[in-house]
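DATA CLASS: polypeptide
GOAL: derive structure tokens

***
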Amino acid sequence: MLFMKYIYQDSTELPVQRDFIEDLKSFIDITARVIPLENSIIEIKCKNKEALHELNNRITGMDIFEEKLSLLVKKLAKDLGTEDLMPCADAILIICRENFERNREILEMESRKIESGAAQEYQKIETKVLEVLTPFLISGIYGAEKRFELFSSIGGVSGEMEGSVSGLQYYYKLWFTEEPLTVERLIGSLSLPGWTKTGILRKEEKIKMQDLSEFLVSSLEYDSEKNVRIILENKKANRKFRIEGGGFKYFVYEDEREITEDKELGGYIDIEDLAKIPVKVQNYLRENLRTYTLSKVLLDEEDAVSTNQIFDCLKVIAEQYGVIVHECLARGHNKEEITIKMEEADGTRTEKYISKAEMYTRLSDVGSEGVEIAEILGVDSRAQIKDSKYLIA
């Protein structure tokens, strides 16, 4: 794999070592696709709300009319002061009540039909929104704190990823290679100390390093701070080890007994070997992810899709990207283009750019929401990029 460095035009490294121009184009593309979808849901909700309001008004109107008619008929019969009129009054009210009940049932059925159809229509569009966002959010949000959780079985490896930044949270379902995840496949060779009895005539307990390469990784947790928690089991599932920690501080357990605190066993553990695990886990995640699906997006702990806050989510991302756009313009020669350089391992450099005009045109075609995104990015003449407090590295 060839090494590639991403730098500004003044040769300063970008805070994120990614092809920022391609990410920027992808962001503009998903904005152009997802905003009309969200707007269509809002429009349908408004129309359905108006239709339901009208039906409810008709039902309420019938209820009020029925109540006033009953009072009026009974008052009229009472004012005339004859008992002969009461059966007639009751008959009138019975016929009217039956008619009201039939019409009320028809209106209520129509109301339920609208609500049921709307729910299906919302779900269909909301699913499409998640599909549009799926390829971008998994790696296109800079500075996000990520947490992975994997589970391994005979059928293969699956898991979940949670990302979060500035009140925005997103969740993915992950599927990896269709085979059990062993220690050897994940991190290579690994041996841990344990007590064993040796000798033919006289059994003595001695420390022995056990090779765990064939152990199954039953579960794995990993986050962007490079902390890990791994549970290892042998094929018989009668021996279990747990490794957790980060940096150069790790804890190793066999079942629930901590090995690292054991005065005799702890000295046999190579902490430097354990410290290499996070990088190997990171490589496994990058190289073996087979498919992934975005399952949920939250903004300030609310479902952003069902509450129509995806536009607000895009603004959070635009703030992240706007910082780098601002730096590209400040460090670049052409103030009308966002330009980066890509430096290969042999020193060869190539430039990549996108013009402010092109970005603004594509975003303004989306409507007022696109114009607002353009202003946040800093590609509109009226936009002023403020110092950002967001983490972008």
